[in-house]
Amino acid sequence: MSAPTAVTAHPAPSHPAWAHPAPSHPASAHAASSHRQADAAGPGDATLPAHRRRTRTIDEVLADARARLRRLSPAEAAEAHSRGAVLVDIRPAAQRAAEGSVPGALVIERNVLEWRLDPTSAHRVPVATDHDVQVVVLCSQGYTSSLAAAALVDLGLHRATDVVGGFEAWQEAGLPTAGAA
């Protein structure tokens, strides 16, 4: 029978071993280094990978989006539309059927909005001629439209905005509508 091997006691690490595992190859070394840098940078640092950043609520995201827009009342949106702004209704077909529509509005559902309005896109609509086009986005209540308009601003459509209160406010203001009442 062989004698047992002596075990030498080592001091406990100052942090758990799983926190920053030893890299096994160069890609792992980079990942481990990135995690250490992320820990040092702090949870709100925009240079962090998305999964390591501080999470935000939808209310915070919405407030940030709206802070970048000069939102229009329904009357201001109607006036802008009469002067040539593109009024874009992003509501799904079922919502438009149930609530009604705005005569003269360009219907582009939310899921393809950026591709249709980016002047550099092969899938753009004819009115997407350049980044100076004024786009006024309309949804049902003015929430989704704020996020959509901010996405358009991110694409360089610097005059993009939305309608405060959405279609519901448009209708309540007595502005022209068609369909369901």
Automatic annotation (TrEMBL):
The source organism is Cellulomonas cellasea
Location of the region described as Disordered in the Swiss-Prot/TrEMBL record: 1-54
| GO MF annotations, alphabetized | thiosulfate-cyanide sulfurtransferase activity
Name of the molecule in the record: Rhodanese domain-containing protein
Question: Matching SUPFAM superfamilies, A to Z?
Answer: Rhodanese/Cell cycle control phosphatase (SSF52821)
Bias (Low complexity) occurs at 9-35
Residue ranges constituting the Rhodanese domain according to the UniProt record: 81-179
- Which Pfam families does the annotation name? Rhodanese (PF00581)
